[in-house]
Amino acid sequence: MKYSLQILDYLEGKESGVSLADICRAVEINKSRAMRLCGTMEHMGYLVLRQEGGVYSLGPRLLSLGKAFERNNPMIRIVKPVLRNMVIDLEETVSFQVIRNDRRMCISAVESPHPVRYTMVEGSEGEFPSGASSKVLLAWGPEKLREEVFERAPYERHTPNTITTLEELKESIAKTLDQGYILSFEERSLGSAALAVPVFGSEGSLVGAICVSGVLERMSKEFLRMAVPYSIERAKELSRMFGCSNSFIE
């Protein structure tokens, strides 16, 4: 079971598929065991083997499981309509990010209608502290998580704008707390920008972060002058839905 799940995790985001040899290296198992596991998952619909290239990709069974998870998760049922309305108004990709163990996870996303857009995959995870949503989740999330992330410094550099030092990260978190939101420009990938705001639940506990992501050219000063207060209002709307008191929100 462990290796089967590791194979599925490894295949996430590999749109062109991967070979059996790639799977063996990634999961660190021998070829015969990988063949047995992949054969079983292919038979059950979790994997698809493309005969022309001899590569594996994720199968349709995972889609049905994802839809079942969405139907049975009350948080997603609350969040998704708000994200859809935001995409209609902002025309950029909007996602909802939460803390999952020591990583951030996108549990819901609606993509921009533009042909050139920033893509956020539902169920995808990312490491702290890069990106706007990471700063929001660290700012209002558990102190234990902040301490763990602080101990990992220095951080991996993805672009020239990536925050890599502990001092930079602490300054960014302080700015996030002071403003109530954070902007990120080309921190994780060149040509992209993001805006993130917190969503709270009962007793002011952090639920997650709304993140608006787009290409840098469209995320202009004029766009952000409109998008920042708009996103904050949508976050307040969601916070009320999750039981946060008006006095705390204001």
UniProtKB/TrEMBL annotation:
| Ranges of residues in domain HTH iclR-type | 1-60
Q: Does the keyword Lipid biosynthesis apply?
A: no
Q: Which SUPFAM superfamilies match?
A: GAF domain-like (SSF55781), Winged helix' DNA-binding domain (SSF46785)
Please indicate if the UniProt record lists Ubl conjugation as a keyword: no
**Keywords of this entry:** DNA-binding, Transcription, Transcription regulation
Record-annotated IclR-ED domain positions: 61-244
| InterPro entries attached to this UniProt entry | GAF-like_dom_sf (IPR029016), HTH_MetabolicPath_Reg (IPR050707), Tscrpt_reg_IclR_C (IPR014757), Tscrpt_reg_IclR_N (IPR005471), WH-like_DNA-bd_sf (IPR036388), WH_DNA-bd_sf (IPR036390)
Q: Which PANTHER family match?
A: HELIX-TURN-HELIX TRANSCRIPTIONAL REGULATOR, ICLR FAMILY, HTH-TYPE TRANSCRIPTIONAL REPRESSOR ALLR
What is the name of this protein?
Answer: IclR family transcriptional regulator
Q: Which organism is it from?
A: Dethiosulfovibrio marinus
